[in-house]
Design goal:
- The protein is of the alpha/beta class and about 300 residues long.
- The protein folds into 3 domains: about 70 residues, Ubiquitin-like (UB roll) (Roll), CATH 3.10.20; about 90 residues, no CATH class; about 90 residues, no CATH class.
- About 30% of the residues lie in helices and about 20% in strands.
- β8 and β9 form a beta hairpin.
- The longest helix has 28 residues.
- The protein is elongated and about 120 Å long.
């Protein structure tokens, strides 16, 4: 018999071996056991973080704030959180307790095991918006921070006063412009508040640019004549400057250089910088419709 034939012949008296397949229940039990062994430590740590007294928020909350929001006010608003579990504490809900007319942003940071740091970023006053017999302090985005009845010190300070004619918006101003985040109060249904906020934001930008010039430091009020025309009221002479926001940088620089010559020329009451090829001087009443023909003395060539 060939060697190949011998390999193919089973040995006498020997039974074939059958392998047992694992039972499904046993396999599931082994898998579940492995999962539990992996999850158990995580669950244990989670339970410990959520229940251990060492993580209870202590009373000494660290507070950094500004001039308008006191540390005492912040601690008082967060007092109900003292003793709560810090890892499980929602920072979003905690920050919601700090809504205030002067709070622009509340930054909260957990310091494990049981400390909380709070930084209050306050709104920065940019100007005072006047409408009728009311006035509000506004921020750089043209949004209300607070009414002047609550911030007389600011409204009587050196902040530039801004006015916008109702006709420019096509609607009545009503209760005032859009309020900053955190400011509560009645909202007017008679005004396009977002449009007013955009106008005020552009005007605040003009104020910042004007203040970069030496002559602009004397500006104490800005009137919006149109979407791009502004009337600047100054202390001293000339008392009024008319500018176009889109070319303020160039025209403001020319006016800076020619101030002395302009005053010597006629000591005007009004200087109009809105024309492309001239500076118009006038001793008349300023207004949005001022044209070269209305000027008492004209023809100062900026070139």
């Amino acid at each position: 018999m060939s060697r190949g034939g011998r390999r193919g012949t089973p040995l006498a008296g020997r039974r074939p071996v059958r392998r047992r397949r694992p039972r499904p229940v046993a396999w599931l039990a082994v898998g579940a056991g492995k999962v539990l062994l992996g999850v158990a430590p995580v669950v244990g740590v989670g339970v410990w973080l959520a229940t251990a007294p060492v993580f209870d928020l202590k009373a000494g909350i660290g507070v950094e704030t500004g001039a308008r929001v006191s540390e005492e006010w912040v601690r008082d608003r967060l007092a109900a959180l003292v003793g709560r579990n810090l890892p499980m504490l929602s920072m979003e809900r905690a920050a919601a307790r700090l809504e205030h007319e002067w709070v622009r942003e509340a930054r909260l940071v957990k310091r494990l095991p049981n400390e909380l740091d709070v930084e209050i970023v306050e709104h920065e006053p940019a100007a005072v918006f006047e409408s009728g017999n009311r006035a509000w302090v506004i921020d750089r985005d043209g949004r209300v921070i607070v009414g002047c009845e609550s911030a007389a010190d600011l409204c009587e300070s050196s902040l530039v006063r801004v006015s916008v004619p109702h006709a420019l918006l096509g609607e009545r101003v009503g209760e005032g412009p859009v309020r900053s985040q955190g400011v509560s109060g009645p909202a007017s249904r008679d005004v396009s508040r977002a449009a007013l906020a955009r106008t005020l934001k552009r005007t605040v930008g003009v104020v910042r640019e004007v203040k970069s010039f030496d002559w602009g430091r004397e500006v104490f009020a800005v009137g919006v004549l149109s979407d791009d025309d502004y009337l600047l009221e100054r202390r001293g002479r000339p008392a009024t400057v008319l500018v176009r926001g889109s070319d303020l940088t160039a025209k403001g620089s020319v006016f800076q250089l020619l101030q002395a010559a302009i005053r010597e020329h006629s000591d005007p009451e009004v200087v109009d910088l809105r024309f492309r090829d001239r500076i118009v001087l006038s001793t008349g009443t300023p207004g949005g419709g001022l044209a070269p023909a209305d000027a008492v003395s004209a023809g100062v060539d900026p070139s």
